[in-house]
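Lab channel / #folding
Pinned by the channel admin:
"Please post every new chain as: sequence first, then the structure tokens as a reply. Keep commentary short and put observations after the output so the thread stays searchable."

First post following the new format, from NK:
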Amino acid sequence: MSITAADVKALRDITGAGMMDCKRALSETNGDVEAAKDLLKKWGLAGIEKRASRVAKEGTIAHYIHQLDPELPPKKGVLLELNSETDFVAKTAEFKELARSIAMHVAAMDPKWVSRSDVPADFIERETAIFKESDQLKGKPENIQAKIIEGKLNALLSDRGGVLLEQKFVKDETGKKTVGDLITDYAAAVKENIGIRRFARFAVGE
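Reply from TO:
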């Protein structure tokens, strides 16, 4: 059975697990969502659905200043709020480092939104209309066109200037882990709901 990006996203929305984990679970269960959910739990992600519904109102504000030359003024800076359920987790060095690493990622990749749900509907409509006019879609059946447009939108929103949680994390050497996966992995480790509330990126001249 062919596993689509929409299938993977749907499972992730349900479980909160990482995109790569969701894709692997669906592949190993031939697209059976319930079986995939059970498999994710067996892999150590049990309870993630309950955690996702709990309020994360503690956390920290991280900052990152990008300065290649100490003798020159910095050109980029980021403030980012990372939330946890408890102050205990928020005080740890690991949590603070996670927040700073994500702030550094924001400086490098210039995301516009935290999650897909933050993307304005008119942006999606405008980009979809542009894709529909491309030569790649001419003469193709509507179902094929829809899949191509979905793929192009996913690629656009996961690239520089897109959705933070869907971007490939700049410090991941494998090039596979997204910022969302990073958050999910940490949440599974500390058994708390962890989330990015907001961020602000500043760049001189932009």
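NK: The first strand starts at residue 58 and ends at 66.
TO: also worth noting, The chain has two domains: 5-51, 54-119+163-203.
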